[in-house]
Specification:
This protein is of the alpha/beta class. The protein has helices at 20-31, 65-72, 90-106, 130-143, 163-174, 193-204, 223-234, 248-258, 263-271, 296-304, 326-330, 335-359; strands at residues 11-15, 35-40, 56-59, 77-80, 112-118, 149-154, 157-158, 177-181, 187-188, 191-192, 211-215, 221-222, 239-243. The chain has twelve helices and 13 strands. Strand 1, helix 1 (20-31) and strand 2 (35-40) form a beta-alpha-beta unit.
């Protein structure tokens, strides 16, 4: 791809601007000189984001044809980051949102669509997980708009607040002894969120590249090595214990119980642990400026830092379940005890939220 940004300023609609990736992409687009239209299906809350007053907000539920047409009005390019994994019937909702958006794009002046999708493992004849099958269905639905469309496919995205990273962080912190099933030795190629953002900005500027490209950092690791790298960066002493017989459903349920990620998300991630999640060598994004991508250790250290200038560190608008709890962190105690307390507080909040809904 060619370098983009300077000299090609456009009006960009970010559908999913309030999400983990979107909230980090918007400031990068503004820095590249673009006008940004930020959309959310909920009432906008500009105060939740440092960039909240530098964009135009448009409320848009991507499943509503009228709202999508209004959101696309006067827009040149679309970055599609809509994702409803934690909701019931997520595949159906994501299918409807992608189809509605593609139809509206085909009737609009938009001349570039970029979508952040998931890496495709080689499942050796087994069907893809529901989660990945849905991501790829969205790719083809968006491409049906007939406008130049590129899907960038990422596996584990490293950064505080990223769903996949937070599950790794919570398990690696909570468990002093980490059971590793024998089948969980597949390879992953994590990518830092700042490189994901770089790729998205660059992709918007180059309409000649269509189809799909994979996003991955320089390190290809097996899961136990990823857990070990996290422990090293966080200064934690942890032991990994090989477990010969552990059904993947049991592992998924354990991940859902021991992390505060939405349970469906944890189960979906567990389903893909058996397969290598690495980039296709001939279809991997390389930055146009030839600069290096962040290695896993540097990205994890940035995620653990409190440096607000690093996209990998926590953001104000990140999902509630990923946010730090300064009061809990201030109490001197081992990291695993803090992680267990955090989980207990979140579970108590979930139960009280459910009780309030039942009593309404
Ligand atoms: N984070 C990762 O680890 C990771 C890894 C690989 C690939 N990806 C891909 O990257 C993309 C973005 O992921 P993310 O982590 O940023 O997700 P996220 O934090 O869950 O954000 C999802 C966004 O979708 C919006 N949304 C949901 N339903 C909507 C609807 N009906 N209409 C309009 N907007 C809707 C949400 O906005 P409102 O709720 O405000 O409407 C939110 O901004 C996804 O396609 C995901 O598969 C992420």
């Amino acid at each position: 791809m060619t370098a983009s940004g300077e000299g090609t300023a456009r009006r960009v609609l970010v559908l999913g601007a309030t999400g983990y990736v979107g909230s980090r992409l918007v400031p990068a687009l503004l820095a590249a000189g673009h006008d940004v239209v930020a959309s959310s299906s909920r009432a906008p809350d500009p105060a939740a984001y440092a960039w909240g007053t530098s964009v135009e907000w448009r409320r848009c539920d991507a499943t509503d044809p009228g709202q999508v047409a209004q959101a696309l009005d006067g827009v040149d390019m679309l970055c599609y980051l809509v994702h409803s994994l934690d909701g019931p019937r997520f595949a159906e909702r994501d299918r409807l949102a992608a189809r509605t958006t593609a139809e509206a794009v085909s009737r609009s002046a938009v001349h570039r669509v970029v979508y952040l999708s998931g890496l495709v493992p080689d499942p050796g004849g087994r069907p893809l997980s529901d989660h990945l099958a849905s991501r790829h269905e969205v790719e083809s639905l968006l491409a049906s708009s007939g406008r130049p469309t590129l899907a960038l496919r990422a596996g584990i995205v490293i950064g505080a607040g990223s769903t996949s990273f937070e599950i790794v962080r919570q398990l690696a912190t909570l468990l002093l002894v980490q059971p590793v099933p024998s089948w969980m030795r597949s390879r992953v190629q994590p990518v830092a969120v700042s490189d994901v953002v770089r790729a998205l900005v660059e992709a918007l500027g180059d309409e000649d590249v269509t189809g799909s490209l994979d996003l991955g950092g320089p390190d290809v690791l097996r899961y136990p090595a990823l857990l070990a790298t996290f422990s090293r960066c966080a200064g934690l002493l942890r032991v990994r214990l090989p477990v010969p017989l552990a059904p993947s459903t049991a592992v998924g349920l354990g991940m859902a119980a021991l992390s505060s990620a939405p349970p469906r998300t944890a189960l979906a991630l567990a389903h893909s642990l058996r397969d290598d999640m690495v980039c296709r060598p001939d279809r991997t994004w390389a930055p146009a400026d030839g600069g290096p991508l962040l290695d896993a250790e540097t990205a994890i250290r940035r995620a653990l830092s409190r440096d607000p200038s690093a996209p990998e560190s926590a953001g104000r608008g990140d999902a509630v379940w990923t946010r730090r709890q300064p009061l809990l962190e201030a109490i001197p105690s081992p990291a695993s005890v803090r992680a267990a307390s955090l989980l207990a507080v979140r579970r108590a909040r979930e139960v009280s939220g459910q009780a309030r809904r039942l009593l309404r």
